[in-house]
TrEMBL record, chains A, B:
Primary location recorded for the protein, binned into one broad class: cytoplasm
Organism: Spiroplasma litorale
One of the GO biological process terms: asparaginyl-tRNA aminoacylation
Name of the top EC class for this enzyme: ligase
PANTHER family, A to Z: ASPARAGINE--TRNA LIGASE, MITOCHONDRIAL-RELATED, ASPARTYL/LYSYL-TRNA SYNTHETASE
Swiss-Prot/TrEMBL catalytic activity: tRNA(Asn) + L-asparagine + ATP = L-asparaginyl-tRNA(Asn) + AMP + diphosphate + H(+)
UniProt xrefs under InterPro entries: Aa-tRNA-synt_II, aa-tRNA-synth_II, aa-tRNA-synth_II/BPL/LPL, Asn-tRNA-ligase, Asp/Asn-tRNA-synth_IIb, NA-bd_OB-fold, NA-bd_OB_tRNA
Protein name: Asparagine--tRNA ligase
Signal peptide: none
GO cellular component: cytoplasm
Keyword terms, alphabetized: Aminoacyl-tRNA synthetase, ATP-binding, Cytoplasm, Ligase, Nucleotide-binding, Protein biosynthesis
Length: 454, 454
């Protein structure tokens, strides 16, 4: 028996007998009666326990400290007039584990910064119970969405010699401390993956539809609210399909995940709406109920240029073809101009990755970013270059070493017809769905520069 | 439209019009008629395409090479007398991408060793389509099992300063090549995780039921068929529950996953039974239909001693309390003696990890291993030591540095009542379900000593 079952059981009657184990959130004791608020992690909802001095250990119970674990035997008292629809009148309470007095989460409010220092205890708060329940459910929704659509889950390698974007900033994996890579475990320099996409493409040519969902890493020395050294990515890839298919897939996936969270995390979403982002539920309703707009990058530039003419102030106001859109531009387009999620397509090749398919105009690539109100870019995807010669030329033009990539380029020689996919930063999605403002608060044990606890 | 839908559609009639994209497995052309066998990855089942010289590109088609990608328009011809119940008579075939002549997977059989060298292409074979479809479905079954039972999925950290077992052999994560860890990214020495259990325990005290499912790493320099440097682990943890609950959970999970594979991967299992392990399906049926036996370690020692008396030969035949059972002993117990899966419980504390709960006899711990016919140990679990003083003493006795573990031991001070969990090596499970004999064949891009390709 757990609290989630109890609070959601519509058939419970007064005097029904219950027995369960839970943790003490608060304890308020008078002379002859005391009130415990307890939680067992099965839901963020708490349950009030009333205990009276008829219990033989009343004196001990009245001193019971926060976070102690107890077993309660008692009877249901329905309280339909209160916010919590029932409470339990204890007939017996066994103290299973007493928490010590220095338990850091006493009743008062704590800052998110303080809670990060006790990442092993913060999931006991309602805020983090909500965030991590939603994270868990969203992860499952993603697996469910893809599996129901016939996708095969591929575990792309974590240790790799590739650096998908050519962007550097990889962590080195070694068993030595002297950089003598030929003598190292793998006999060469090894890194932590920054993306599983290239591996996923190989598998898409075998299974048609695949997705990865695993950790990725960036050794970027920046302390912002959006960057972590370790985060999870979802990277679907579909063979024989183009950018249009990819765009529909992204829209369907985002809506599916949000709908699933509305279905299974109602209380948690309401808690986040009240405590992390006012208007969160309205924002998510807008996303799941609207048709996502589609415009080209060139059209987006025009919209931004018009905005500048109409005296809208951007930090970067030199708007012209070739500009790598900033968050301010992305948010203007989806929040102010269209007021809903929007796909921008066909970006200049210069600001996108080497593997994206060159459009016939020779200037743009078949890429898309999904922008959503509140944060800007949520998903980035593209159709891949399927022509071996064009891909090789692009690598050469960009100075990309093709030695370790030869297997990837070779895929184009062995029957490769269209392939499209996207990357979704899982933490970015969870921040969006929970309203959490800092990536450190949606990762159980976050890793950032100079921060490696637990 | 994909091949999986076509071959499973019971309503298809002769002359129904179909259109789909697929890859050529074989091409056999006569003077006026040719036969293509094609696959699109949606199933391991192939489809035969008949093309005649009435097609304008017949000459080109008759030269079409293996692995080329084509689009087929044609009509269904039902062939109920053949193994494959239908074929397609092509009215038009468009060649979308021609494979080059040096495509390594020509029609002849290839060794698994050779196929490992082309990990980017081997998923196009039926063997690896079967293995990796089963891997994907088993991963989903695991998520489904735990989510349906109210477990919260926790992403334990990949980069860590902890070494859960104290067993060493961790990979170092660095941005330097000189071992100057105070100046490194995290300001101290960082490793790749060998287990997420300690972190999961912290979350179990908050959510009651949690599980991890992520990559783990061992820098063990051994080239065996069972060891990889990178593999995935599932580590559930449940608060307020004991070893008995844990044992039931393991049995339920193993049966659930196998049942799910029988449900959704029928063709793939049959292929594995015929090509990887004869009797595979019978073996799995035994597991899913039997009640798992339970004996203590002490009883197991007695059984092995009796076997030695009866002249059974073990490589290690000095059987006595304290022996760390080898695979030969485990397999004897479950295959010869009980002929079904078996849990062994209550191992000597000396051969188990520091965090396992000491039994009242002061000699054994509340640990269990699940042994299954065919491989021996599949799962290992335990109830955790919940007494702060006993845990601290155990760390001290074993010389474990408790500085970086203080947060873990401290959990016992802040209300900690029973916690039990287990670890399942995902690849070990996939080897067991598919009959694959080498761990390198159940990991898309395996990582082993001196081997870092793709």
């Amino acid at each position: 028996m757990n609290i989630n079952q109890l609070v959601k059981d519509k058939k419970l009657k007064n005097d029904d007998i219950v027995s369960f184990t839970a943790r003490v959130r608060t304890n308020r004791a008078g002379k002859s009666v005391g009130f415990l608020v307890v939680n067992d992690g099965s839901t963020i909802l708490d349950l009030q326990i009333v205990y009276k001095d008829s219990l033989k250990n009343f004196a001990e119970l009245s001193q019971l400290r926060i976070s102690s674990v107890i077993n309660i035997n008692g009877k249901i008292l329905l309280t339909p007039e209160k916010e919590q629809k029932l409470e339990v009148q204890a007939s017996e309470i066994e103290i299973l584990s007493s928490a010590s007095l220095d338990y850091p989460l006493q009743k008062k409010e704590h800052s998110l910064e303080f809670l990060r220092e006790i990442s092993h205890l913060r999931p006991r708060t309602k805020t983090f119970q909500s965030i991590f329940k939603i994270r868990s459910s969203a992860a499952f929704a993603i697996h469910k969405f893809f599996q129901e659509d016939g996708f095969v889950y591929v575990n792309s390698p974590i240790i790799t010699e590739n650096d998908a974007e050519g962007a550097g900033e990889s962590f080195i994996v070694t068993t030595l401390d002297n950089g003598d890579y030929p003598k190292d475990f793998f006999g060469k320099k090894a890194c932590l993956t920054v993306s599983g996409q290239l591996n996923a493409e190989a598998y898409a040519q075998a299974f048609k539809k695949v997705y990865t969902f695993g950790p990725t890493f960036r050794a970027e020395n920046s302390n912002t609210s959006k960057h972590a050294a370790e985060f999870w990515m979802i990277e679907p890839e579909v063979a024989f399909e183009d950018l249009k298919y990819n765009i529909d897939l992204i829209e369907n996936m985002v809506k599916y995940v949000i709908n699933y969270i509305f279905e299974v995390c109602k209380e948690e979403l309401e808690f986040c709406d009240s405590n992390l982002e006012n208007g969160l539920i309205d924002k998510l309703n807008l996303v799941r109920n609207s048709n996502f707009e589609k415009i080209t990058y060139t059209e987006a530039i025009k919209i931004l240029q018009d905005a500048v003419k109409n005296n809208h102030e951007f930090e970067e106001s030199d708007i012209k073809f070739g500009l790598d859109l900033g968050t301010e531009h992305e948010r203007f387009i989806c929040e102010k101009h269209f007021k809903r999620p929007i796909f921008i397509t066909d970006y200049p090749k210069e600001i996108k990755a080497f593997y994206m398919k060159l459009n016939p105009d020779d200037k743009t690539v078949a890429a898309t970013d999904l922008l959503v109100p509140g944060i800007g870019e949520l998903v980035g995807g593209s159709q891949r270059e399927d022509d071996f010669d064009k891909l090789s030329k692009r690598c050469k033009d960009l100075g990309i070493d093709t030695d370790s990539l030869s297997w990837y380029n070779d895929l184009r020689k062995y029957g490769y017809y269209k392939s499209a996919g996207f990357g979704l930063g899982f933490e970015r999605l969870i921040m969006y769905i929970t309203g959490a403002g800092n990536i450190r608060d949606v990762i159980p044990f976050p890793r950032t520069p100079k921060n490696l606890l637990f």
